[in-house]
Structure formats: structure tokens, C-alpha cells
Design brief:
heterodimer; A: mainly beta; B: mainly beta; about 0% helix; about 55% strand
Chain lengths: ~110, ~120
């Protein structure tokens, strides 16, 4: 079955450590996205990528980094520079030139 | 996003009741997407509206986009516990919107359906 996988489902880290969240898709989609969701809030765009080896900052890119070395993978690194990293992170993908996005199950990151 | 506001923020209804969720844009929409999210999970696509006055239905859920393309409503008929979750609208304001090819989401409406 085609879809998007995110791992792990829950992630715990100590403050000051970098952590990388995985996102893989087998839908053959060109575009991929990372969103952050906080309690009672909608999704905020962190980064997105329309093609391999290219990506753009979203609305809240500070403290995050991404790479897009393969079409099917778009990992997100939450760095120690991110002041409030505890959140629910969602990855999505879409066909090029389409806004209809398919979402992964999310990763809940807790930093203490 | 203040450019896209959803109301109400939360809603509790008795099973079998009808309900409406609104999504209001500060400017003319190019497209409006409705998604549903179960707590702690990813988003599921429901419907996309693009034309002014357009209306789409899926099972007991109907979404409409007003003629001016600045407001959309999501209506659920005879609600069931399976309808519970967070409903989010996502907007596109221009197909060539400064090169940004990503949706801007509202803050969501949390729906609880009491048996």
C-alpha cells in the first residue's frame, strides 16, 4: 500500500540535543512538507521541498534543518537552537502542482 | 493564521444532531481544502472547493464555498461518534502565490459527539 511513514511515533530528548525525525513516502510524489502542530493550534509550515536537492523555508524555519537527497525521503532535524521544540510534527507529500496533501501519522517530540 | 479563521474553536453535540463549522478568509480564495484529524494522528483529506458557490458532499458531510470565495462551511448531518475529531481548513490564495506551494491552515475546530 502506498503512503507516508513517520518514525518514531514518540520521541524523547534532553534539551540541547539535536534530533532527526524521519519521513518516507512511496507515493512517487515530488513535493514534501513538514508542519508543526501545537495544542489548540493549526498546522504551521516549517519547510517544504518541490524537487530533490531543493527546499524552501516555511513560516517557522528557525531552529530546524532539512535535506532532500532522495525523492522518497525528507528528514527534519530539530536543532538545539529551536527554543520550544516540544510539539507534534507532521510530514506530508503531494504531486507536483497539486495542493492536495497526503499526511503521515505524525511524531510527537518531547524535549525536557 | 489570522488570514484564515475557523469557528467555533470547539463544539460538543449530541449524537444525531446537525452541526456547521465555518472557515473565513481575509482575502479571495483560489482553493479551500477540508481535512479531518483524529487526536494524535495525521490529517485525512475530505474535500476541495475551488469555484464560487461550489458544494460537495461525502456521506453525511457537505462543504460549500460562498460566491465571493471568502468563506467555506462544513456541515455534518445526523452526527455520529465517528465524526469526532479536529476539522481543519487549508487555503490557497493564488496559484502562483510568491512561489509558495503549500497550504495555510486554520487553527481547527475540535468536535466532540456525545452518544
Amino acid at each position: 500500500d502506498g503512503g507516508i511513514t513517520q518514525s518514531p511515533k514518540y520521541l524523547f530528548r534532553k534539551e540541547g540535543q539535536n534530533v532527526t525525525l524521519s519521513c518516507e513516502q512511496n507515493l512517487n510524489h515530488d513535493a514534501m512538507y513538514w508542519y508543526r502542530q501545537d495544542p489548540g493550534q493549526g498546522l504551521r509550515l516549517i519547510y517544504y521541498s518541490q524537487i530533490v536537492n531543493d527546499f524552501q523555508k516555511g513560516d517557522i524555519a528557525e531552529g530546524y534543518s532539512v535535506s532532500r537527497e532522495k525523492k522518497e525521503s525528507f528528514p527534519l532535524t530539530v536543532t538545539s537552537a529551536q527554543k520550544n521544540p516540544t510539539a507534534f510534527y507532521l510530514c506530508a507529500s503531494s504531486r507536483l502542482l497539486s495542493y492536495e496533501q497526503y499526511f503521515g501519522p505524525g511524531t510527537r517530540l518531547t524535549v525536557t | 493564521s489570522q488570514e484564515l479563521e475557523q469557528s467555533p474553536q470547539s463544539l460538543i453535540v449530541q449524537e444525531g444532531k446537525n452541526l456547521t463549522i465555518n472557515c473565513t478568509s481575509s482575502k479571495t480564495l483560489y482553493g479551500l481544502y477540508w481535512y479531518k484529524q483524529k487526536y494524535g494522528e495525521g490529517l485525512i483529506f475530505l474535500m476541495m472547493l475551488q469555484k464560487g458557490g461550489e458544494e460537495k458532499s461525502h456521506e453525511k458531510i457537505t462543504a460549500k464555498l460562498d460566491e465571493k470565495k471568502q468563506q467555506s462551511s462544513l456541515h455534518i448531518t445526523a452526527s455520529q461518534p465517528s465524526h469526532a475529531g479536529i476539522y481543519l481548513c487549508g487555503a490557497v490564495w493564488s496559484p502562483m502565490d510568491t512561489g509558495r506551494r503549500a497550504l495555510t491552515f486554520g487553527s481547527g475546530t475540535r468536535l466532540q459527539v456525545q452518544p
